[in-house]
Write a structure and sequence with these properties.
The chain has helices at about 5-35, 40, 50-85, 90-95, 100-140, 145, 270-300, 305-320, 325-330, 330-400, 405-430, 435-460, 465-475, 495-515, 525-530, 535-555, 560-565, 585-590, 595-634, and strands at about 155, 160-165, 175-180, 190-200, 205-220, 235-245. The chain is an alpha+beta fold and about 625 residues long.
Length: about 625
């Protein structure tokens, strides 16, 4: 029977307080990062506080599902880091409560947050997204004199396209102006060129006053009664200063909902699934119409029967029909004309195919975007649970609270998640990856990580012990560990100097015999190294006796012996015969040729080091033995 314990209340309280704080921090960071994308659309537009408040409100609602996973990761990491640092987690385990039982109330809370995330994405998010981009589109059309970009045509003014080569934001001057105005049909266009100019809004905010300097005006004066006449009046005007009034409401008017309602981000899951059927049916019908057009017009396939086509192919194969006969009968001019027509036809067909291919590509991208948004609603909600099972076990393993180490780890984990998620989304959107693979790659990549950390934390395994990884790296690279022996503060019994001297002399004799029978400079057989057991029991015995002697002499008060003891090397007892102690690891290493070469060269290095170490032991013992005998006789 499930019952709420005081421990559950305690852990929940710690987590929720941190979650609320980290959520607002994450929300603020995401909003600032998102704001930089549209800061150019907002600056200098003279927006009221009400409009800015709506802008940030809709932005906050849109980004809440993205802030949930990061806040859960950071808050769970800090919560269990604090419990571990203050030894409360140790007390909980000592009371017989496992780590998973401690997670139990928080798992329930995280599931509720995941459902809340899905609700925001399916209900609140689409409405906020629709309102946000409607407001953003309306803001873009406000104060167009600041919106006009440099170097491209701007079509934000009704009935006009304007090109500005350069603009000065401080003075408001526009340079290198080109304006295309169209009041009726294509023939009624007016082209205006000006060296510079300035655009201002009238007091009633209903018109734009465009003052142009040093320019020309070109315009067709075609009217309704001259529609069928070949003589069209033409106007050309050169001016030094000219003012043009353009109809434009520079106040903030909400754009049409139809301009943004087709975006998949502004739709719920049910709406996306409903529209996907319509989009797929529309794409199929357009693709089939393209096929019929290509078959009917571009390919110009003859309507002949199967029997007639086979007959013609047989005649061509037998040489009874020459397909180049008509071309050879033409004159030189006729041949050139035929080639020109064929080339023109091919280029026209190619251009038509490219246009249709681009259009079909945009249709399929629109369909994939709906698929992406539908899957994203589930993966983003599921990431809340995954981030909890990464953050909470990591906090229990690292046992560091506060905002130092947890923030660094949270940022690193979120960066990895963001790279996988963003890369998968872009690749799937462009059709280079399948939609399901692209949208689930981040979840699939982090789920094993969450399971691994949870397992390690539940088993109290040491994962982030720096000394452990340092020792492993030193063994892999063959780095030496130095001996450190200092004078003891309290010595109860002096060393057995006479026995130790005798043991060191015997060790020197064993080393001499070993060096004579084992040629350490010779290259061993790789087959014996990787596929046969090869423990060097002689070196193990020498190392064991040497360590016992050094440990006994370590209790001496003599400075000379203490100094010489630190000169004794620490022997590697098996690395000179095989890479690993376990046979199956040696077999796998030998089968993997590049890895096997590395470990074989590493083994040769250990053989050279062992030869040097044995020589050092002999020379050091020759200094220690006389001193030990001298101390034994005193």
């Amino acid at each position: 029977m499930f019952r709420i314990r005081k421990l559950d209340i305690f852990v929940t309280k710690q987590f929720m307080l941190l979650f609320v704080g980290t959520f607002f921090i994450c929300q603020f960071v995401l909003m600032m990062q998102f704001l930089w994308r549209y800061v150019d659309e907002l600056i200098g537009k003279g927006l009221s506080l009400e409009v800015m408040a709506q802008f940030f409100w809709y932005m906050g609602l849109m980004l809440m599902p993205q802030a949930f996973p990061l806040a859960i990761l950071l808050s769970s990491l800090i919560t269990f880091g604090n419990l571990g640092e203050s030894s409360e987690l140790t007390a909980i385990k000592a009371a017989g409560i496992s780590l998973m039982q401690t997670f139990r109330p928080l798992i329930f809370i995280v599931l509720l947050i995941s459902l809340t995330s899905y609700y925001f994405q399916d209900v609140v998010g689409p409405r906020a997204n629709l309102s946000f981009y409607q407001l953003l589109l309306s803001v873009k059309h406000k104060s167009p004199e600041l919106e006009i970009p440099e170097g491209i045509f701007y079509d934000g003014l009704p009935g006009s396209n304007i090109y500005v080569q350069k603009k000065n934001l401080e003075t408001g001057m526009l340079y290198g102006i080109m304006i295309y105005r169209q009041t009726g049909s294509y023939e009624d266009q007016a082209i205006i060129l000006a060296d510079s100019g300035m655009m201002q809004t009238t007091e009633e905010k209903k018109h734009l006053l465009l003052t142009l300097y040093s320019g020309e005006w070109f315009e067709n004066m075609r009217s309704q009664d001259l529609a069928n006449s070949a003589n069209i009046p033409y106007r050309r005007e050169t001016f030094s200063t000219k003012r043009i009034v353009l109809d434009f409401d520079s106040g903030l008017n909400l754009a049409d909902m139809a301009d943004v309602s087709g975006d998949a981000r502004a739709k719920s899951l049910s709406k996306i699934l409903h529209d996907m059927d319509s989009i797929k049916e529309n794409n199929d019908s357009i693709g089939y119409s393209f096929y019929l057009d290509a078959k009917r017009y571009n390919l110009r396939l003859p309507t002949i029967s199967k029997e007639d086509s086979l007959k013609i192919m047989n005649e061509l194969a037998a040489g009874n029909i020459n397909s180049d006969t008509l071309y050879e009968r033409q004159s030189t001019t006729g041949r050139q004309e035929a080639l020109k027509n064929a080339l023109s036809s091919v280029q026209s067909m190619k251009m038509d195919m490219e246009i249709k291919a681009d259009y079909a590509k945009s249709l399929h991208r629109y369909y994939r975007h709906h698929q992406l948004e539908a899957i994203k609603k589930f993966t983003l909600a599921l990431s809340c649970l995954i981030f909890f099972f990464i953050g909470a076990p990591l906090g229990a393993i690292i046992r560091k609270g506060g905002l130092g180490v947890p923030v660094i780890i949270s940022v690193l984990v979120f960066i990895v998640y963001y790279i996988f998620d963003n890369t998968g989304f872009r690749m799937a959107r462009e059709g280079q990856w399948t939609v399901w693979f692209g949208m689930t790659i981040s979840t699939v990549a982090l789920t094993p990580v969450a399971a691994f950390f949870t397992y390690k934390a539940n088993k109290d395994s040491v994962v982030f012990n720096i000394d452990l990884y340092k020792s492993l790296a030193m063994r892999m690279l063959g780095l030496r560990t130095k001996r450190h022996i200092f004078r003891k503060e309290v010595i109860i019994e002096d060393p057995r100097y006479e026995e130790d001297a005798t043991l060191l002399a015997e060790i020197n004799t064993q080393i001499a015999d070993y060096s004579e029978h084992h040629k350490l400079l010779h290259w061993p057989n790789p087959i014996n190294v990787f596929f046969h057991a090869g423990d060097d029991q002689e070196i193990e015995a020498i190392s064991e006796r040497l360590e016992e002697t050094i440990e006994d002499l370590g209790y001496t008060r003599d400075r000379l012996i203490l100094t010489e003891l630190n000169h004794y090397p620490i022997l590697a007892t098996h690395a000179h015969t095989r890479p690993f102690r376990k046979k199956w690891m040696n077999v796998v290493t030998g089968l993997l040729l590049p890895v096997g070469v590395f470990f074989y060269i590493r083994m040769l290095r250990f053989r050279l080091r062992l030869r040097k170490d044995l020589r050092t032991i002999r020379h050091t013992s020759e200094k220690v033995i006389p001193r030990a005998k001298e101390l034994a006789n005193t």
